Amino acid sequence: MKLSEFRFAVREEFGEMKGRAYLRDLSLAGAGGLTAEEALEAGFDAGDVWVALCREAEVPVERWHGRGRPERD
What we know:
Blueprint: H1 3-14, H2 16-25, H3 36-41, H4 46-56
């Protein structure tokens, strides 16, 4: 997942304000307790950060590939 796709998916799934708050404030177990912003800055793959964010925010699995994007196998 490209960073631009990640940002698009965050906006589509959570909205502008809530998405920004989640990126900044939500600690991600799948990223060693870092926030999404910290994980991306540390070099984590955007797709891995997206999945970790979805898990923490309890996004249904069928939307883990990002709203508006085709599902992958």
